[in-house]
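User: Hi! I'm working on a homework problem where we have to compare a predicted structure to a textbook description. Could you give me the structure for the chain below?
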Amino acid sequence: MNESDSVFSILAFCVAAALFVVWLYFVYRRSRWEYIRLESSLQHERYSHRLLVDVMRAIEKSLSDHNSAGVIIDKQTIYDSIMFAACRGTRAMSVCIFKISDDGKKLVPVAMTGLFPFLEGVPEAMRSASPSLRARLYFAGDEYSVESPLFKEALEQGHATLVQNFPVRPGRVHLGELPSVPKSVIIVPAFDSKGKTIGVIAIANPRHRGLFTEYEIKLADALAQQVSSAIEIRDIFEVRAEKHRLDSDLGVAAGVQQLLLPHRIPQAHSLDIAADYLPADRVGGDLYDIYDLGGDRVAAIVADVSGHGVSAALMMTICRTNFQRIANMCTGAADLLKQLARVMNKSFVRGKFLTIVCAVIDFQRGTMSIARGGHERPLLYTADVRSHRVVGCKSLEFLDSKGMPIGIVKPEDFNSTITEISRPYNKGDVLVLYTDGLTEARNAAGEEFGSDRLAAIVAREAHRPAKELNAYIINEAKQFAGKEKFFDDLTLVSIRSI
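Assistant: Happy to help. Predicted structure tokens:
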């Protein structure tokens, strides 16, 4: 080998060594870059997961704190929590949360951070708009059709979709400035537990000016699930809070109603009187009252207001107040109901009325008069038929006087239909007033308790004190109904002459 060949070999070796070193360097740099990229992605994924957990905990704590304080968390608070988490986790320039309109045809913005771009262009009029007007329009957001190609794919597939093509809506333009131009947008739908779409989260334009990564798209999907879960939990809390409030209000109303019922029943004039009231709901619509008219006379009424609840209880209160106000000015049972219909004429709203029965007992004359306004027929038990001064009267009689309910017709028409029945009322006689909640009580077979059963019980147990007679009647009705609940208020008043 000559000297020139030796030099050439050395140069070739050096070149090969240099190339090998360069290759190693590039391999190292490539490996290093790939390591940095994977580490960055891993860090970002860890951050996204931590952010998602933090959001879940924050929402859970907020819901729990508001629930324990008896306050319902505002939906906007949930929207804002999810929106800011999406903005931080995906490194986006702006985020907008849309909800489905009531007609299900539009996506309406409910929360937005940053200058969210007009995805289908801005109105051409914005070309010449002032900067302040443009800013207001940007912050107001835009509505979109659920059929828009931008959203349709994500809504149909049910998961996050990356959109990079933004067709301009007819009559609109892209102005070219960054806030109005969408570059890359994640569209992710949110569903409730029944699979119904409740809204969309749109995340626009990453800050690094590139495309959203796979991890950021997954984070957006997870956040959408959180917003739907949080809204459903919040709605459950709202329903519970509303139920608690209504229960509290009904409890107060029931307490007031019990206070308005008579607590002391006059037992003068050799009368034994007992009254029982069993509302079907916490607040009922039945009424009873016993009023001492003076001059050896006592008036008793039992009424049934149409419907249940607070409105029926208020009507009951109005009726009892007017009854006590006019009772002393009336000459008999029919006159009392006529005056009551007159003073209550303007108290009824459409569809509301009350049925009522009134008894006036006169001890000086030994008589009892009955007037009835569409109510259940009172039952009269006569202890000694031979003492009757009315021919043909039996020991048990349903007193079938005529009359219309109060509130259905005008007072003059009510007066023309009302009639009064008078009967002797002597020692041992029993008058039973009641509402249809007693006679219409049903058993499991759908059979009604009925007036015949009531008459049979009164005939058999009329010798008992009024309180025991009431308890016996109600117990028989409960045994007849069995496990079936009384679907209407039950009021029972027994008046026994002793």
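For your comparison, note the following. The radius of gyration is 41 Å. The chain has two domains: 43-239, 265-497. Good luck with the assignment!
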